[in-house]
Amino acid sequence: MYIDSHCHINFPDFSGKLPQLFELMQANAVSHALCISVELEKFPEIRQLAETYPNVYASVGVHPDHEECTEPTVDELVALADHPKVVAIGETGLDYFRLTGDLEWQRERFRTHIRAARLTHKPLVIHTRAAADDTLRIMREERAGEAGGVMHCFTESLAVAEAAIELGFYISFSGIVTFKNAVALREVAAAIPLDRMLIETDSPYLAPVPHRGQTNQPGYVKHVAEEIARVRGSTPEAIGAATSENFFRLFAAAV
């Protein structure tokens, strides 16, 4: 059994294609998927998916890349998270790769999400790109460890992974781990404790080998497990079982 801990199946890429998406999940032993919010305007779509499909969960949050959107407040996030299928706050975090200039608004948005997670006792889904030092600093300053969570689509160093784990966070690997040039990332996947690991697709993006160039989807998450199993000298089934157990442990308060 595998679980896709981070996907965006409400995106237009999947319009009219959900029956086939769920068929592929079933065929590839993918039991559950967590559909991640990136803006409040589209959150009702995600909540509806979670209410409609028993094996779909939802998060609520605003992506750090989204400038022209409703800015969330702590109270608003807390209210929207008050739903049995909303299991996480995010995705949130910092991204200094796509955006430049004065990004204090991004850091404040991140703090807002952490505060909401602590109040709701629901874990954080954290995105960090070219911003690891500030991400970890704000996590410490805002006591993000009280909520816990996951560093999603991880591409940072082993030192960053270990610092996040020390704060009580899990590390999630996407299809990037299957890419030919991802040698350093595979070393991280081989090194971190298995009981702190999740797997994801981040679909519709980052389709793993052998599906690169295609629209990614939750059914492909097994290929992430296969590659991690290869570098760890394990089996896909063992990686799937461990990461599924980790998923339910992390989101235990809600699921």
Description:
By secondary structure, the protein is α/β, with parallel strands linked by helices. α3 (74-80) packs across α4 (104-120), α4 packs across α5 and α8 crosses α9. The mean pLDDT is 97. 39% of the residues lie in helices and 17% in strands. The chain is globular and about 40 Å long. The chain has one domain (2-250): TIM Barrel, CATH 3.20.20.
What descriptors fit this protein?
single chain, 255 residues, alpha/beta, TIM Barrel, 9 helices, 17% strand
Layout of SSEs?
Layout: E1 2-7, H1 18-27, E2 30-35, H2 43-52, E3 56-60, H3 74-80, E4 86-95, H4 104-120, E5 124-129, H5 132-141, E6 149-151, H6 158-166, E7 169-173, H7 183-191, E8 197-199, H8 221-232, H9 236-250
Parallel strand pairs: 1-2, 2-3, 3-4, 4-5, 5-6, 6-7, 7-8
Number of helices: 9
CATH class: Alpha Beta
Specify the CATH homologous superfamily. Answer: Metal-dependent hydrolases
Q: Biggest sheet: strands side by side, in what order?
A: 1-2-3-4-5-6-7-8
Name the shape in a single word. globular
User: Which blocks of ≥5 consecutive residues have pLDDT under 50?
Assistant: none
Largest sheet: 8 strands, parallel
CATH topology: TIM Barrel
Instruction: State the domain count.
Output: 1
- The residue fraction in helices comes out at 25-40%
Helix/strand order, N-terminal first:
EHEHEHEHEHEHEHEHH
Backbone structural class: alpha/beta
Note the gap between the termini. 17 Å
